[in-house]
Write the structure tokens for this entry.
Amino acid sequence: EVQLQASGGGSVQAGGSLRLSCAISGLAFSHYPMAWFRQAAWPEREFVASIKWNDGRTDYADSVKGRFAISRDNAKNAMYLQMNSLKPEGTAVYYCAGRSMSISSRTPEDYTFWGQGTQVTVSS
């Protein structure tokens, strides 16, 4: 059974930082992309960042480029999202997701596996 467990959310003031983690079990994502999405309002889920597991190639939404950094630890089967200079519009539930195809995507419907989400609240 594939399980993704997101953690690390919390409440911070604007300009602060948080580091999200995604623990992966039940599947080896050695060739597949992983991503972070966020959802501020149902039902839209917004792409944040993705990473190719085999070569580490990354992709970022324009709204977070230069402030967020996605990374992975192959040995620990974990993915991270370092979020710096957080803004109030970054308030959302953040989800980690895994795709079962080798091509990266920014579309949530292309991802098969999802974690339960972790709440991030940024106050002004």
